[in-house]
Amino acid sequence: MNTLREIREHQTRRVFLERSTLGLGTIALGSLLGAREKPRNVLGGLTGLPHFTPKVKRVIYLFQSGGPSQMDLFDYKPHLNSQFGEEVPESIYPAERKTTMTSGQKSFPCAPSSLKFARHGQAGIWLSEPQKHVATVIDDICVIKSMYTEAINHDPAATLFQTGSVNPGRPSMGAWISYGLGSENANLPAFVAMTSNGRAKAGQPLYDRLWGAGFLPGRFQGVKFRGQGDPILDLYNPAGVTRAQRRRMLDSLNELNDEQAGRFNDPAIATRIAQYELAFRMQMSVPELIDVKSEPKGMLEMYGPDAAVPGRYAYNCLLARRLAERGVRFIQLYHRGWDAHGNAPKQVGVQCRGTDQPTAALLRDLKQRGMLDDTLVVWGGEFGRTIYCQGKLTRQNYGRDHHPNCFTYWMAGGGVRGGMTYGETDDYSVNVAENPVHVHDLQATIMNQLGIDHERLTYRYQGRDFRLTDVHGKVVKDILA
Questions:
Q1: HEC sequence for 306-367
Q2: Domain that holds residue 88
């Protein structure tokens, strides 16, 4: 039986006219909106990209969901110890920049960090005690103390960092990069996302749209590797189905999809065909990829006791290196649990016990393989934390609310000047005092290292050109080698 012939023979005049009208309308609308696919190169990226010689081939973004406290990690303010419990002046911290969780407090006492700090590396960079492993690789890290954002609540703030907008629906950074540069490995996605939970608490929800494609074609969205069960749903063949049978099924399905694509010119159909084919190839590549127990014992020990436990941060860091060496372009790790509204010093310590060693191991691992030179590693969350205490204040116990005006990120790897700090905050770590870096500046800098001019990588949607950095953003050249 010829399925395609049967479909054609059973088409009525009414169906033919309806589908012809729809097809013509779709083509006309696509032409009006400028939605026609741009020419692509052999890697699946846009012709003409990269715009200039890239410094790196890939990015590993270690997103610390919940808002790490800059006061308890990087932004050392020893002079505030003498102001413990004193009211933070409203002229320093105005009421309109407080969330509803603390705006009703009658008192806003200063809560200097109770954690010990020390200088590390050739530049003497200040780090708190729980970061003893990161301290050993600090000479490879550029600490940016002057990040700021407009968003004060978790979801819009995380959405802004990931997509360039506080409003859901825009393409994620990884999707933009995948769309522009394509993939170096036909058997793996160009963009992979992984999540893990902190030991202190589960943390804020992470929605799939944070690694989604938005209005870009769906094939550019991040592929999520799950932390339990099969890493990717429906990756393996059902019982009784052989690989040869799966291949014949896909061939028949692709034939039907090709027929539909020729009739409707719908880019979603092309995406579906590409994703089916990628999934088929991943059946061979992913099982070997996720077998981290094949790593030498010393390597697993370097990443820590959780290195071989799927779903843990250490496992994801090790998997990130394995993905990077196999040509995956953008690797996104989301780690939850930094939302320390209460008992901040204890929670920061607990979080670091789960993240400090694997993070340092990832940098050391990349460096000893010669990969740090062409890999950009980015660490940070959606905002920082307040200097004033949320809730009851004691010397060893205090909470901190959301703080968007200044916080810390760091970058390491290709083209970034290691062993330096950039930017400064005011005496209370409330506002940026020197060299401000906005979310869009960070995004522009990441894209610059990949050889992309953030102002030129655009996509026309609903009658206007969109880009990751909207109408903002400048490359932070002072931190680049």
A1: CCCCCCCHHHHHHHHHHHHHCCCCEEEEEEECCCCCCCHHHHHHHHHHHHHHHHHHHHHHHH
A2: 41-231+296-479
